[in-house]
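Supplementary Methods S3. Input chains for the assembly prediction are listed below.
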Amino acid sequence: MTRQDGRAFDELRPVTITPNFVKFAEGSCLIQCGDTMVLCCASVEDKVPPHVPEGAGWVTAEYSMLPRANRERSRRDISKLKLSPRSAEIQRLVGRSLRAAVDMNKLGEHTITIDCDVLQGDGGTRTASVTGGFVALSLACRKLVEAGILAEDPIRHFVTGVSAGIVDEQPMLDLQYSEDSRAQVDLNCVMNELGEIIELQGTGEGRAFTAEEQQELVRLCAKGNRELLNIQREILKR
Amino acid sequence: MTRQDGRAFDELRPVTITPNFVKFAEGSCLIQCGDTMVLCCASVEDKVPPHVPEGAGWVTAEYSMLPRANRERSRRDISKLKLSPRSAEIQRLVGRSLRAAVDMNKLGEHTITIDCDVLQGDGGTRTASVTGGFVALSLACRKLVEAGILAEDPIRHFVTGVSAGIVDEQPMLDLQYSEDSRAQVDLNCVMNELGEIIELQGTGEGRAFTAEEQQELVRLCAKGNRELLNIQREILKR
Amino acid sequence: MTRQDGRAFDELRPVTITPNFVKFAEGSCLIQCGDTMVLCCASVEDKVPPHVPEGAGWVTAEYSMLPRANRERSRRDISKLKLSPRSAEIQRLVGRSLRAAVDMNKLGEHTITIDCDVLQGDGGTRTASVTGGFVALSLACRKLVEAGILAEDPIRHFVTGVSAGIVDEQPMLDLQYSEDSRAQVDLNCVMNELGEIIELQGTGEGRAFTAEEQQELVRLCAKGNRELLNIQREILKR
Amino acid sequence: MTRQDGRAFDELRPVTITPNFVKFAEGSCLIQCGDTMVLCCASVEDKVPPHVPEGAGWVTAEYSMLPRANRERSRRDISKLKLSPRSAEIQRLVGRSLRAAVDMNKLGEHTITIDCDVLQGDGGTRTASVTGGFVALSLACRKLVEAGILAEDPIRHFVTGVSAGIVDEQPMLDLQYSEDSRAQVDLNCVMNELGEIIELQGTGEGRAFTAEEQQELVRLCAKGNRELLNIQREILKR
Amino acid sequence: MTRQDGRAFDELRPVTITPNFVKFAEGSCLIQCGDTMVLCCASVEDKVPPHVPEGAGWVTAEYSMLPRANRERSRRDISKLKLSPRSAEIQRLVGRSLRAAVDMNKLGEHTITIDCDVLQGDGGTRTASVTGGFVALSLACRKLVEAGILAEDPIRHFVTGVSAGIVDEQPMLDLQYSEDSRAQVDLNCVMNELGEIIELQGTGEGRAFTAEEQQELVRLCAKGNRELLNIQREILKR
Amino acid sequence: MTRQDGRAFDELRPVTITPNFVKFAEGSCLIQCGDTMVLCCASVEDKVPPHVPEGAGWVTAEYSMLPRANRERSRRDISKLKLSPRSAEIQRLVGRSLRAAVDMNKLGEHTITIDCDVLQGDGGTRTASVTGGFVALSLACRKLVEAGILAEDPIRHFVTGVSAGIVDEQPMLDLQYSEDSRAQVDLNCVMNELGEIIELQGTGEGRAFTAEEQQELVRLCAKGNRELLNIQREILKR
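Predicted C-alpha cells for the full assembly:
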C-alpha cells in the first residue's frame, strides 16, 4: 500500500515558502505545502493590549479561509456575523505557538499580529500557518532590529508545525485533505528547533488511540518538523 | 514541597456529581471538582443538522461561563456580540469528546445538545464539562430507551476528562486555578474506559516540553480518569 | 376549587434563599421559589457609566435564562446575536427595582451589577430575580462596608417582588408556570418594606381588567411581599 | 402652581391624528401629542409566525426613534448592532396592547405589523404609539374587509394609551418631557373603550408610591383615555 | 408618447421643502419630490473623527428607509443586524456630496451629521437626500454662526442632486419609481450652483450606453439641478 | 512633468492576469495592475436567490481586502461585525458590472458568485476586480459549457474597468495610490468591448468638475479599457 500521491508514509508534501510575497507588511510569506497555500503577514503596532505587563510586547494571530479556498464555497464570516468556531480554535493555536517563539521583553511595547489567510486548503492549513507565520514573524522582527527600533532580535527559537494521523490503521505524516477526511486519528504537533513540543493536539476521529500510537505520531511529526526547520533556516539565513 | 491544598501530586480534587440537578432537561447533573462547578444539561431534539447522514444522529456541545464565575466579572458574550474564542475552542473539544461516546446509528435521527454552563470556575472547567457532560448525555440516552424512543442505548463507552500540568518543574494532576495560572505546561486528556485517548491537548505555556514529560502527564491523567470513571459508574449504575 | 399544588390562593410557593452560593462574587445567593431557581450575583467595579453624576454610584442588572431552564431548550442569545427582547424588558425592570434600594451618594463611584441567571424557570423568574437580587446586592454592600471601602451601608430599604394573576376568574398569588401560561391577567409588583410600590406591571393577557381587580391583585402581592421581606430579614439579619 | 405650558393637571396636550399620512402602508397615521410626533404604519402579510395556532392571525409592533428625535442625537441601533433595550421594552408593550384589540380568528392567517417610528420625542412616545398604532391597525383591518379578504372586521375594541405621573408631589396627566424627566412617579395606562385596563406600568423613579397614589394616577389616565377615544372615533367614524 | 403622470421629459416632479420640520435638530427639513418624502436632520457635535486634521471639521451622512416607505415592508436593518448595502452605498454618496459644500477649516472642530430618513420612497430618494440634506446642513451652519460658535458661514456653495434615465429609449429627467424600475439606463448627478459636477453615477441596467447618451443625461440633470437650486435659494434666502 | 513611475498620462500600469491561480473554483485568476493584486474566484451554485425569475440565473460579487493589503493593517470586518461600507459600495458596483455581461436565461438556474479578495492594494482595486472578475466568470461559464451543464456560453460581451483622474490639474489614466490619494477628481468607468459604458462613477474629491473634464476622463478610460480588453482576449482566447 502506498499513498495516493506516491509519498512514503513519513514524507512531507513539497514545501515552498516565498518570503516577502506582499510588500506592505513588515514581514510576509506565501507558504505552499502541496496544494495548501497560506498567505502569512506580520504587522507591527506600537501598542499592546491592556493585559500585557508594562514594557513587554505581545504576539497574536488571526486565521481565515478565503470563501473559495476549498472544494465548496463557504460564506464569509461577516455574512454570518460569526467568526467560524473552527477559525477561532485555530487562531488561538497559532497565536500560542508563535508567542512561544518570542522574548516579550526584548520585543518591548509592540504588538505583532500574524494574519494567516488560506488561499487554498488541502489539509494541514493550521500547521502551515504556524510554519509560515514563523517566517513572517521572524522577517518582521529582523526589520525592527534593522530599523533600530529594537536593540536585539526577540526571536528565542524557531517554531514549525506539522500533522500526522492514522489512516486505514497506518500512521502517516502530513495528511492531505483526501487522507485527513478519512483519518481515524489526527494529531498536530508544533515544535521548536530542539524537537521539544510547544503545542500538541490529538483527536480520535473514528476511534480512540493508545498512548503508544500517540507517541508514534509525535515521532513522525518530529521528523517532519526537522525538515521544515531546515527550509526555514534556508529562507531566513539564520 | 506539597500542593497548596495539601493534595498529593497525583491526587484529584474532591469530585461530586449531582444527577438530575434540574428537572426539564432529558439528562442533567451538577459536577463539582473542588471549587469548579459546572451545570451540564442534555437536550434531545427530533432533527439533525444537514451534514448528518440519513438515519444517523448527532451530538454537540455548548460551553459558557456565567459572568461572575471567576475572580473578576466578565461581560456576557451577547453584550460583546461575540462568542468568546476560548468558549468556541472548548465547546468544540467537548463536542468531539462526547460524540465519540455515541453510536450515531443507534441514536437515530436525534440531536443531543449538551449545555455546559460554568457556575464557578477554579481550573479544569473544560474537562469537568466532559466528565459531567457524559453523565447528562448518558441519563438522556437512558430516558430515550425507557420511553421506547430508542431500541437500544447508543452509548458505546464511557468518557472522562482531566488535566495535568507541570508547575515549578513538578508534574501534577488536576490543576486548580492557582496552579494553572502559573503552570509551565498544561495538558488535557479525555479517555474512554479502556484508558485509550479520545482527545489530547498540550500547551507549553512557559516553556516547551519533551516527549517524555508529555508521556508522564498522560500517565497522570490516566490515573485521574480511572477515578472519575468509577464515580461515573457509581452515579450511573452501569 | 383549589390550586394544582394544593396551595391557598393567597399562598406563596416554598421559598429558599441560599446566600453566598458562589464564592467570587461580592454578594450572591441562589433563590428557589417552588421549582424556579435563579442564581443572583452582585459584582462591584470601581467606575461608573458616563451619565452618572460625579461622586455618585450606579446599580444595574442583567437577566438571562440558561438554554435548558425551561420545558424546551432555547438557543443562546449569542447564537442568535440578539439579546432576547423579553430579557431586555426584564433586566430593565430588575435594574430599576434594585436601583431604588440604594443611596447612590453613599455608594460613591462604584457600579454594582446584579447578574440574575435562571437555572430553572417555572414562573415568576423576574420577581424572584428582584427578591434574590436584593439579597446579593445587600451582601455586597455589607462587604464594602466591612472592607472599609464605604463609610456607611448605602441600602435605603428592602426590595421584594412577587406576581399575582387571575386564572379562571380567580385572583391568586405567585403563579407557577402552569397557572401563568393560562392566566387572564398577570401582574408583577415590587415593593419596599413599607408596602409601598416601586414597580408595577400588569397585563391583560386574555381580557382587560377593572381598576378593582387590579387593586385586589396589588393586595395579594402586598401579602406575598411581606412574607418575602421576612425571609430576607432572616437571611440578612438586618 | 400651574404647569409649564399652562395646562390643567388633568389636561391632555393638543392631539392631532393625520390618517393615511403615507400611501403604501395598508393603514397609517401621524399622531402628534404636543411636540411628540410618531408615524404609525400597519403592514399586512399573508403568513403568521410558527407559534400561532392554525387559522389564526397575529399582530406585532416595532418601535424606534429616529436619531435626532430628541434633544441630543442618538446613534442608530444598527451602528451599535443592538436593538435599544428601551425600544425592546416599548415594542413589547405596544404589541401586547394592540394584540388585545384584535380577534385573531377573524383576522385569519395574516400578520399585521405596526411600525411606530418617533419623528420627534417630547414625552409619552410609547402611549402615543399605542393610540396612533390603533388607528393604523384599524384602517388596515377596514381595508382588508373592503377588499373582501376578511369577511368581518377583526377589531374587538378600541385601544388608547396615556401616561400620568407625580411631579413635585402633584399628580398630573400626560407628562411632557420637561415634566417626565423630573417625575417622582411615572405610570402608563392602556385601556379599552369601557375604561378597562389592558396594560399598566408604574415606576417609582424618585420614590416609592402608595396604592392610593397609584389609583389616583389610573383615574387621571382613564380621563385622558376617554378623550383620546373620542378623537379616534372621530377619525375612524366608527 | 407622454409620461405616466403627464410630465414633459425634462420636467421635475413638484418639489416641496418644509424647513425646520422637527425642532431639536440644529437644521432640518422635509423634502417631497412627488411622492418621495425624506426627513433630513443636521446634528452638530463638538468633536471630529480621528482621521480629521487638527482644527478642521467633518460632515457625514446616514441614510435609511423606514420599514414601510415602499410598496412592500422591509425588515429593519437591526433585525437583520446588517446595514443594508444599498443604504451603505447611498450614504457614502450623500456624505461625499455634502462634504464638498463645506469649508472644513471654517467649520472648525465640529462634526455635522446629516440623517436622511425616507418616510416614503417613490424613486429618487438618494438625490432628494442630497438636495434636502443641503438645506438641513445650511440651516445648521447658519445657527452656528448666529450663536457665535462660528465666525463665518462655512458653506462654500450650494449642492443639489437629481436623476435622469433612459426609459423605452427615451431620455427623461427625475424618474419616479414606475419609470425607474424599468429604466434601461439610470444616472444620478450632484452639482453645485455653477453647474459643475460633484458626483456622477451612471448604470446601464438593461443595456450599455454611449458617451453621447451619457452627456444627454447630464444635460437633463443640469436643467433639473438649476430648478432645485432656485427652490433652495428661496427657502434659504441666500 | 511626468508621473512618479515614469508612465505617460494615458498609460496603464503593467497588467498581468494569471488564470486558474487556485484550483477548486470553477474559474479563477490573479490580476496584478502594478502593485495591486486581486484574487478573483468564480463559484457556481445550482440555485438562485428568490427574486430571480423562474428559469433565469444570477451573478453576484463579493469584495474584501485582506487585513494587511494596505500600508496600515485594517481590522477584519468580522472583528468589527460590520461589512466595511466601502466594500459594500464596491461589491455592488462589481456585481452590477459583471451581471451586465451575462445572458441570465442562457445561464439557467445557477448563481455565479465572484469573490474578489485584494491581496495587495495600490489603487484601482475596484476596477481590477471588474477586469479580473470577468476572466474568472468567463472561465467558469466555459467550464459549465464543457461539462454539458449549459448548452451555450451565457457571456454576452466582455467587461473591463479602469479609473482615471485629475491630479494637479492633469487628467491621467489608471491612478496608483500615491496619485489617487491626492486626486482632485476620480472617475471609474466600466465598458464593454464596443466601448459602451456599463458603469460610471465620478467624484470631485477636491473640487467640482465640468462636463468637459468628465468627458476627457471617459476618453482616457476608453483607451485603457481597450487595452485591458486585448489582455482578456489573449488570456481567454475568445
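The radius of gyration of chain D is 18 Å. Strands of chain D lie at 15-19, 27-33, 36-45, 58-65, 111-120, 160-167, 170-173, 185-191, 197-204.
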